[in-house]
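Much of our argument rests on the idea that a fold can be written as discrete symbols. Part of our work consisted of pairing the sequence of a single chain with a tokenised description of its backbone. No coordinates are needed to read the tokens, only the vocabulary itself. The record that follows shows the chain in one-letter code together with its fold in token form.
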Amino acid sequence: MLRAILRDMRAHPGRISMTLVAIVLGVAFVVATWVVSDSAAETVGNANSRTDLAARVSSPRDTELTAAERDRLAALPGVQRAIGVLIGHSSVVQADGKLGDTYWPGEGGTNWDSSARFTLASGRGPESGGEVALEQEAAADAGLTVGSSAKVLNADGEPTTMTVVGIFSYRKAGASEVSPAVAYDPATAAARLGSAFAWIDLYGTDQTQIASAASGALGSGFDVRTGAELAVQRQQQADEEAQLVRNFLLAFAGVALLAGMFVIANTFTMLVAQRTRHFALLRAVGARRRQVRRAVLAEAAVLGLVGATIGVALGIGLGWLTMEIIPTTGEAVVFAVSPMAPLVGYLVGVLVTVVAAYGSARRGAAVAPVAALGTDAALPKRSLVIRTVAGCVAMSAGVVAVVATSGPALTDAKRAVGMAGALTGWLAVILLAPLLASAVLIPLSRLVSRRGSAVSRLAVRNAIRDPRRTAATASALMIGLALVTAFATVGASLTSYITGAIETDVPADTLIVQSAQGFSSISPTLVEKVRAVSGVDSVASPTESFAEFTHQGREYHNTITALEADSLGRALTPVIEAGRADLTQGVLVSSADAKEQGISLGDTLTINGVTAPVVGLYGESEILHGIVVNKTLLPPDPKSYLGAVYVSGASRSALDAAFADRPDIVVLDRAGLLAEYTEPLDLALGIIYALLAAAVIIAVFGVVNTLALSVLERTREIGVFRAVGATRSLVRRSVRRESVVIATYGGLLGVGVGILLGGVMQHVIIGTPIFDLTIPKIVVAGALGGMIVVGVLAALWPARRAARTDILAAIATA
């Protein structure tokens, strides 16, 4: 039996080629994901970690580590060197005169030392006050090399011009350590960054002895870790980060494999149908059902093994290529292939193929020996009752779950139930796909029969001939396309939501003064500088802090936003849903917080000992949060956050001129502010689309495979068609239109499911009504147009093959 099956596979390689492609692509995605995550973990955890430390001393409390502690630790038995590390605010001005966003400025500066923290790529370390060394990525972003003049900012925002004498890469030891952008000589570092050390590194041979001695010398309150403990922490952090990346990518690999399963299952269904007489003859000469079933599963296992072998090799290659093209800052990239990567690849490849082929194997084994007497024997039509009932049950459960969680008050549990309901509904659509295919294509067939050409009638009838096959092919397309449309819907809805909120809060003529590094806090002292600019008539500087307040005898925690009373209605125009926007008479509360905490208009709140009435409730806002109070009501909180200053009346040129000497400050208009909010979302969606492309590509191969095998299945029919006068052109056009019908149906199904799924997702994320969504018209139009193109391209080879069918040989086919 096995020999017969393998011989049949060798005799018809074209039948399985596209299935092999689906297996290879799915396995390659999985293996590449595993290789990239393993390599990233090894690169971060080992290649770029320091192993020369004996111990590290840091202070988790407010106690400072000074030069006195460093000298005391240096004198301990076994300590060969003690190096204090300074970390503080420093950043490098980019080529455009402003700061970039590569580094967090609060930890951007450090002191140069001779330890393995620094690996020089070129030049030398700084030795005097006018010299700095720059980290490679920071230097590249600023367009600086050894010998260049760099503008370096400290905490006060004033630039200092210094000479770049070295370019370095940074090696970390602890899990919480970050890469600084700038390194100064020790004296300059102490002057610019302060004299208190962030930690002290100890060097020596006996880690345990040194760590114990350091703990005894400093007493409690100081954190002492050996170099081995730091290495373990660093590796654990690298493994956790790699696992997050792996889980994220594997989710998309799973989608690709799911699309591949439909392709494989569809292929085996048709392969088994084409070999009905072959199986019947085997049964007639004594083969048992179990033998036939095992033979088909063995064929699937062999196919999965071959596809997995190619996929593992391709995945390892893709992983290597990915690690090579990922931008680095001079680190030694480690290419790691753990045994799990190929093992998972083989497991996935074989298991997915066997599972997908199991139903076909059972149907092949059920062929009766008497079927060998027929001329065009085919598998009996399977009932859709069980599948339809299961689909209806799943759809009902999904709809109930979504409706039950469609209200505005969403808890984490309700969000989870809502998403589970949406996914259950998606599964129901897959189960009901044959029924939906009949529901869509039968009316289309009737319409085409009355008004369409002969080619169109033939194409639609061929597509509807086997609803299962059409549904399986369309479902493979639907999976990837539905996710693309869903995420596009979420992105469009979020963008529309953010845009609407900002356009409501910020008038068109308001300008924004904020940090050049996005949403970093800016100094409150800038507010007075903004007020001094010519033409300014209103300034809003919403300063946020977190505080307790008392309402009707109960204590709550909430965000407190301190704001200038005269800025409302001028620099900022939030929507007031109830009451009035008069901070001179009381406070404003967001409607969402008021509902959650039982606050009503006229209620009295006590915030940090100050009592004030609630005079207004405001709607959703991207600028104001929590309870909004008059800045004169509460004393300034030194730990508060000021993200931006909103200005009306002044011209853009006047504000630009006022802050021309401040590289850490930029001036934006409302369009620029909107771009800052939405560009990260666009980037994330672009990555998601690229990852989902694998599932769409597999589905396209599925269309090719379905049409090719369909042509083989209808060899005799096509021969008769040609014999009664059909031209080759007519045959090609009928196959192409059949492909377009199937692809368009899959596209419509995918877009429809995707929009509904996206509506639930945006409801779960931001709490807006499910149908208060924004449909991404460009994505929808592109998807449907792309499906038509896919239908045409996928049919090129099958149509050509059908048109070249030999008439006499086809008619003689039994």
About this structure: The radius of gyration is 34 Å. The chain has 24 helices and 24 strands.
